[in-house]
Amino acid sequence: MADNTWLVAGLGNPGPGYAGNRHNVGQMVLSVLAARMGGSFKSHKSHAAVLEGRLGIGGPRVVLAKPLTYMNLTGGPVSALCRFYDIAADHVAAVHDEIDIPFNAIKLKTGGGEGGHNGLRDISKAIGTRDYLRVRVGVGRPPGRQDAADHVLRDFSAAEKKDLPILLEEAADAVEELILQGLVSAQQKFHSSAG
Q1: Residue 11's closest CA among 62, 71, 51, 64?
Q2: What CATH number is associated with residue 131?
Q3: What is the 3-state composition of the chain as percent helix, strand, coil, each rounded to the nearest 5?
Q4: Most buried of 35, 97, 112, 195 (most Cβ within 10 A)?
Q5: Are 108 and 185 contacting, i.e. CB atoms less than 8 angstroms apart?
Q6: Average pLDDT of 108-121?
């Protein structure tokens, strides 16, 4: 089963107070994917809300997961789900906010550093490797001297909210392309000169 099973983890913080934050864009993308798959999230013993399904008819099996822990404790649920579903790191994709990419841009990579992102740092520590896939959704750098943590823990601006649905759809497309066609194809399709 595990060879063709993917774990897609949407990073964020739990609760309605954080739901619209830039830091929760990963979970917003997973909501789009869940709607496309026609399913709903169910509570799982791993401290995550999980949806199991397939990408397309006869497509690869996908486990969508929204950890129910705070961002800096994301690794526990991701590691538990990897063990539960017997999924290797090369079939794990973390969907997360990225301040080093402009708003409205998406970039994908495998491995590398965490860039100060506490959710990624905790996943790397919990699964014992940095060699998993990342779907990086650009939220832009904070304006002026605003602290990066304050920036990501605020909701998108009014102007950004107008374009946010398009960004979420494109990020969901990027996840699907990554799983169905591979990293190189997804990078070629979604990387632009921006960022």
Answers
A1: 71
A2: 3.40.50.1470
A3: 45, 20, 35
A4: 97
A5: no
A6: 92
Q: How far apart are CA 139 and CA 193, in angstroms?
A: 16
Q: Give the chain's radius of gyration (CA, Å).
A: 15
Name residue 11's amino acid.
L
104 in a structural domain: yes
Q: What is the DSSP string of 81-115?
A: HHHHHT--GGGEEEEEEETTS-TT-EEEEESS--T
pLDDT of residue 3: 64
Domain-embedded: residue 99: yes
Residue matched to tokens 């709903």: 40
Q: Give the pLDDT band (50/70/90) at residue 144.
A: confident
Catalytic residue among 23, 44, 117, 151: 23
Q: Determine the Cα–Cα distance for residues 71 and 94; give it in Å rounded to an integer.
A: 12
State the residue range of the domain holding 10.
2-190
> In degrees rounded to 5, what are phi and psi of residue 136?
-100, 115
65: DSSP letter:
E
- Residue 195 domain-assigned? no
Domain count, the chain: 1
Pairing of β 92-98 and β 61-67 = unpaired
In the residue annotation, 23 being an active-site residue is answered as: yes
Asked if residue 60 is part of any domain, the answer here is: yes
Q: For the whole model, what pTM was predicted? A: 0.95
